[in-house]
Amino acid sequence: MVRWPSYIGARFGEVVIERTVRNEVMDQDRMCVKCGSRRTRIIGQSVSPPVLYITCSDCGHSSAVASSPNAPAGNPDTVRVERIVRTVMTDFDLPADVVSVADAANGWQVTLRTRSNRIVRVHVVAPEPVPIRAAITRALANA
Predict the structure, then answer these.
(1) Sheet hosting strand 96-104, strand order edge to edge
(2) Phi first, then psi: what are they for 34, rounded to 5°?
(3) Which of 7-16, 17-26, 82-91, 111-120 is the least confident region?
(4) Which of 36, 50, 63, 124 lies 20 to 30 angstroms, CA to CA, from 42?
(5) Are residues 34 and 13 in the same domain?
(6) Do 6 and 41 belong together in one domain?
(7) Which CATH number fits the domain that encloses residue 55?
(8) Coil, strand or helix: which one is 22?
(9) Which of 37, 66, 95 is the last residue of a domain?
(10) What gap in Å lies between CA 136 and CA 109, rounded to an integer?
(11) Cα(104)–Cα(124) distance, rounded to whole angstroms?
(12) Per-residue pLDDT tens for 42-55?
């Protein structure tokens, strides 16, 4: 748990924000505090206190959540590809959730879970949004 000062309105106190291992690893993986959806988008940030302002793609609710003080662990290219994949999934409202992104022999292996709980694996070669979107869309159409 992380405690951050609350500067909302005239109240000053502490807000307790639960942090999961998944949130520690991926900075952009934030859950909506109203509906619980993970389909959120960062719309702003503050340095002091260190928070991210997010909005939910499902319910439209905006909120402030703690930002991670540490950089994500792992290969920077894999972290970059995972962020692109999550952004593409949210921006184009694709019907799946990201399970993992891992290094592969020639690129990255993206594992997705569809809304019907099927696992779909996508091989991504180029770390760019357009080829990633094309590969994910093709894999989900065939699933």
Answers:
(1) 96-104, 107-114, 119-124
(2) -90, -55
(3) 17-26
(4) 124
(5) yes
(6) yes
(7) 2.20.25
(8) helix
(9) 66
(10) 11
(11) 9
(12) 888 877 777 888 89
Number of domains in the chain: 2
Give the strands of the sheet with 40-46, arranged side by side. Answer: 40-46, 51-56, 62-66
Find the range with the poorest average confidence among 5-19, 46-60, 101-115, 117-131. Answer: 5-19
Are 123 and 80 within one domain?
yes
Residue 71 lies in a domain: no
What pLDDT is stored for residue 73 in this prediction?
A: 56
**Geometric angle at alpha carbon 61, from 36 and 30, rounded to 5°:** 45
Question: Which amino acid, 93?
Answer: D
Per-residue pLDDT, averaged over 77-91, amounts to: 88
* Distance in angstroms (rounded) separating the CA atoms of residues 27 and 80: 11
Q: Are residues 23 and 57 part of one domain?
A: yes
Does the pLDDT value for residue 67 go beyond 50? Answer: yes
Across residues 29-41, what is the average pLDDT?
82
- Dihedral sign for Cα 90, 86, 46, 3, please: positive
Domain that holds residue 120: 76-142
Strands (E), 47-118: 51-56, 62-66, 96-104, 107-114
